[in-house]
Amino acid sequence: MKRNEVTNCLICNAPLNHQITWKSFLTNAFPKTICTECEQKFVPYENTSKEVISLYQYNDAMKDFLHRYKFMHDVMLAKVFRAQIHEQLSKTHATIVPIPLHPTKLKERSFAQVDELLKAAHIPYEHFLEKTMTDTQVGKTRQERLATPQFFKLIKNCKNKEIILVDDIYTTGVTINHAKNLLLHSGAKSVRAFTLIRG
């Protein structure tokens, strides 16, 4: 993305005051895509485990962001957290594996939200999983989510791989755990997870 390509905040549309610092120029840092006021509405998540790392809490600002990004198909919003995602994942030697959408859902939505977050952050990734069920976890009780049968199948050999699963949001952990268990049972060396949001 060219510098100053985004001239207005992607959240509230206020004009962005781009200030190119020596640091941003020399490190080729991502230019800002949201204003400071909007930035402050997203609350960092305090991680207590290294098994699942999440960047932000699920608050009203994040709820609005997720709704616009996933359900109103505002794919430009993938750029909002790219610097933070890049910082977390760019130095790992593990293979980055996005949680996939079911092919039918992908057709409906027209883009895979996790893939787009990774692309925007310049993080290479590989698909090892395919989702076999179309129903989502949204609207289910915790008990219903926990009782959900395995809904992934393996599409690529993962033997001896160190893997970081990436998803947009972690709530009960069912999705991540299904994916993790399948990969470990299929020979993965280790599986950790990273999510943008913790619900």
Automatic annotation (TrEMBL):
Positions of the Phosphoribosyltransferase domain: 111-198
InterPro entries: ComF/GntX_DNA_util-trans, PRTase-like, PRTase_dom
A Pfam family annotated for this UniProt entry: Pribosyltran
CDD domains reported for this sequence: PRTases_typeI
Family named by the database record: Belongs to the ComF/GntX family.
Protein name: ComF family protein
Organism: Ureibacillus endophyticus
